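Protocol step 4 of 6: structure prediction from sequence.
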Amino acid sequence: MFQLHSHLNASTATQLYVIPQDMTDLAFLHEPGVLWNLKQRYSSSNIYTYTGGILIAVNPFQSLPQLYGRKVMDMYSSGDPAGLPPHVYAIASAAYKKMRQEGKGQAILVSLIHIIDAYFFPEVSALIAFHVDMLTSSEALSTV
């Protein structure tokens, strides 16, 4: 995606290129560009990234309490979250506001994509896939 000179490292690269909050702003919108952007954002504890109206969340495998709580929730629920970083609260707030305006129910689709976890944590990818398969197997669902 980006050609870096041999004297530049990944840390320097993030200083040279803007890491967009919305991947529709990427110069190269293809798989390597998307994964590179997600990895750069993840490296700076930005686990949420937009792709248009879609929110992508990369599992941080750690607690990030600064991302949640009443203060953060209020930031996204009061006013316009357009100037704020991508967040699950922005999606929830937009759905709630639309429901109130239109008087109709809203739906939020949540999907797990293994390729992102495999890119960031290849050693745990197989373990994640195993657990998801166990949870979604017909035997596991029949016992719920």
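Step 5 (inspection) to follow. The mean pLDDT is 74.
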